[in-house]
Amino acid sequence: MSILLKGGTVVSAKARRQVDVRIDGEKIVEMGTNLTAAGSTVEDVSGYFLLPGFIDAHTHLELNNGKGSMGTADNFYTGSKAAVAKGTTTVIDMATPSKGSSLQDCLKAWDHLAQGNSSCDYTYHMSIIEWNPSIKAEIKEMIDVGITSFKMYMAYDNLRTKDAEIFEAMREIRKYQAMLGVHCENGDMVNEMIAQFVAEGKLSPHYHPLTRPDSVEAEAVERYLMIADLAGLPVNIVHLSTKRSLEAVKRARACNQKVYVETCPQYLVLDDHLYDGPGFEGAKYVCSPPLRRICDQDALWDGVINGQVNTISTDHCSFNFNEQKTIGKNDFSKIPNGMPGVETRPELIYTYGVTTGKISLERMIGLLSEDIAKQFALYPQKGIIQVDSDADIVIWDPNTAGVISATTQLQNVDYTPYDGMQTKGHARSVYLRGQKVVEHGQVIAERQGKFIFRKISKTH
Ligand code: DUC
Ligand code: ZN
Ligand code: ZN
């Protein structure tokens, strides 16, 4: 039985228009004004926005952080359910191998975690944490099975590779016009500064951001972009968080380099004063890069507004405050890095971006859905409401108000960094490939997600 969504306003990154939408099976099959029921079940969506399902291109739903085998608080089941409840219909999770493991084995492991558990559609960025001839040979194998984006690290001793290895990986990735995203922080400098503070007995969460100042990120961004220029590869910078890094991006773009920039809600709506909270509270915000100063936040908003920032994803990586973050009670460097956020991104960006007048709803759609789909080869299957696209549709009610709370969240973690923040608007219902999976904000059908095979994107 087909479904007719009647009377809503369909929004894309470019425009909005009042138009009816017919769904049949998994797809959008017809759009137009005053469509007749023609045997469809009619849902009156007047007064609501119809938004393309949001895509979160940066999650760690399942991460073992390599420090004492600590796994994330969320897993694919809980994280994806929290995501879809608030309108995120696709995640691109960071598949992260252990040292010595092949990319194929990592892919199998991630499929095992996601298949039958995910409540939203999913794919992965494959992380390259070491470089050798067999990993090199696996790049093409990954692309052949639909994994067309990769991730590398310039910090974290258990994950990072050398510059020369990043360069070689880039040249291999370039052969297939695939996408690379890199975590840009100067790992050597971070290690030095951690060692120094620890030696001085400066052990509280207050010191975490001081080990990773803006120059640590900006230097790595500049170096990464220079390496990418040498390799001739368009690249993505994940979780860019500082004004100085954005300036490095501007310089590279002025030299005609193609650079994509992702930032995250935490860098737009939170700031580094939170590390000075009472007791051990600051540990809740220990993530890398760390929360930044207000001047960085302002620069990032400017970048979001003027298009220097391309996408907003979350870097969702949840660790419980009790029993996980507390491992670093006497030494901030032992606090597992990461914060939850896959659930809160749409409401935060709508509230603090759209309703404040900083950005239009159209721009939000670009940042959270359409431009992500284009960058990561999901478009036009995802990222747009148009005929033949997957019927991933968020029925967005702009006239609601809420408060983010750890007690009501679906994320399986004992705190939220946004606790107490007011929100406006929310996903009233959500269709995932034509199936209503969320109604009145409640997940009514879970574990309906499937793997999305990606071909090489034509946009870069
Ligand atoms: N940063 C985090 O804070 N957690 C996960 C990985 C990352 O880069
Ligand atoms: Zn990272
Ligand atoms: Zn990450």
From TrEMBL:
UniProt organism field: Enterococcus silesiacus
Stored SUPFAM superfamilies: Composite domain of metallo-dependent hydrolases (SSF51338), Metallo-dependent hydrolases (SSF51556)
Keyword set, alphabetical order: Hydrolase, Metal-binding
Cofactor: Zn(2+)
CC annotations in GO: cytosol
Keyword presence, Protein biosynthesis: no
Record-given protein name: Dihydropyrimidinase
Family from the record: Belongs to the metallo-dependent hydrolases superfamily. Hydantoinase/dihydropyrimidinase family.
Stored CDD domains: D-HYD
Molecular functions (GO terms): hydrolase activity, acting on carbon-nitrogen (but not peptide) bonds, in cyclic amides; metal ion binding
Chain positions found as N6-carboxylysine: 151
Top-level taxon: Bacteria
InterPro entries, sorted: Amidohydro-rel (IPR006680), Hydantoinase/dihydroPyrase (IPR011778), Metal-dep_hydrolase_composite (IPR011059), Metal_Hydrolase (IPR032466), Metallo-dep_Hydrolases_sf (IPR050378)
Record note on modification: Carbamylation allows a single lysine to coordinate two divalent metal cations.
Amidohydrolase-related domain mapped to chain residues: 49-435
